[in-house]
Amino acid sequence: MKTELPLVSIVCDTYNHAPFVRDALEGFLAQKTRFPIEIIVHDDASTDGTADIIRAYEREYPDLFRCVYRTENVYSKDPKILEHYVFPLARGKYVAICEGDDYWTSPDKLERQVSYMEAHPACTLCVTAGDLVDPQGRRVGSVAPYAEDTDVPMDELIRGGGGFVATASIVAPTRLAQDRAAFCDLSDVDDAVLQLWFGVNGTTHYFAEPMCAYRQAVPGSWTETFFSSKSAARIRHHEGLIAALEAFDRDTQGRYHDAVEYCL
Predict the structure, then answer these.
(1) 92: Cβ–Cβ under 8 A, 6 or more apart, which residues?
(2) Is residue 33 within 8 Å of 4, Cβ to Cβ?
(3) H helices present in 66-205, as ranges
(4) Residue 72 and residue 187: Cα distance in Å, rounded?
(5) pTM score, two decimals?
């Protein structure tokens, strides 16, 4: 059994991702790194065999995988799975996020991002371009805000909202993932608030090469559920996001007020 602590903790939350989760897990295993990693998978009481697939990988790679298998669905009581249940398990200096229905497409993704962050300690959010794919993995578009590698101004990150980059592209310091500002808990989704939190604590760097895939129109996904939900639920979601943005604006003493106002 390995005793060396990982430099990177790959964090993955799954729920009924049986048709897709192998792509995510294979993308993790394909990473070519000069540093140790760990793979933390949290399955939220899937009913479609997702947990069985994860267990098979864990048996084959026991030194890499650290998995949680819920017998009762946590999301129905607390939607902040990554923030409240997965980030606390991370032992690496950095966390790399990828949900179970998304996947990484470049074996050099972690090596390039983490090498950059190690060489640039002020960087607290490193992201990449990504492909949009349908449930079958066919490319249907892209998430690529810039044509070249660049540092991202905080104002542009705020204006971009949670969809500015693919969540599966995010690498950030574990210390920030585990010790977040209170505004992060005001929204019921992680992507927008985490990008704000990670980005505001330093600099954000973007790699223009697509290194991950965001799968759209997945049955049971947050997006599909949200747009089919009753208006009251959608209103609550937007109210929470507005509250988070307003709290962020107060926390930063209005430094990015114009960008925040753009989003409200």
Answers:
(1) 5, 6, 7, 8, 9, 37, 38, 174
(2) no
(3) 81, 109-119, 154-160, 174-178, 191-200
(4) 23
(5) 0.93
For residues 103 and 212, is the Cβ–Cβ distance under 8 A? yes
**What is the dihedral sign for C-alpha 201, 204, 210, 214?**
positive
Q: What are phi and psi of 125, to 5 degrees?
A: -150, 120
DSSP β-bridge partners for residue 213 = 103, 131
Pairing of strands 203-215, 150-152: antiparallel
Average pLDDT over residues 252-264: 95
| DSSP H stretches of helix in the chain | 21-29, 50-60, 81, 109-119, 154-160, 174-178, 191-200, 222-228, 231-251, 257-263
With 0-12 / 13-18 / 19 or more C-beta atoms within 10 angstroms meaning exposed / middle / buried, residue 63 is exposed
Signed CA dihedral, 252, 257, 259, 261: sign only: positive
94-97 and 171-173 strand pairing: antiparallel
Report the distance separating Cα 52 and Cα 56, nearest Å. Answer: 6
Place of tokens 């604006």: 249
Q: Can you tell me which residue has the tokens 């990015």?
A: 256
CA angle 145, 146, 149 (to 5 degrees): 130
Q: In angstroms, rounded to a whole number, what is the distance separating the alpha carbons of residues 223 and 226?
A: 5
| DSSP string over 19-71 | TTHHHHHHHHHT---SS-EEEEEEE---SSSHHHHHHHHHHH-TTTEEEEE-S
Bridge partners of residue 129, in order along the sequence: 210
pLDDT in tens, 85-142: 999 999 999 999 999 999 999 999 999 999 999 999 999 999 999 999 999 899 999 9
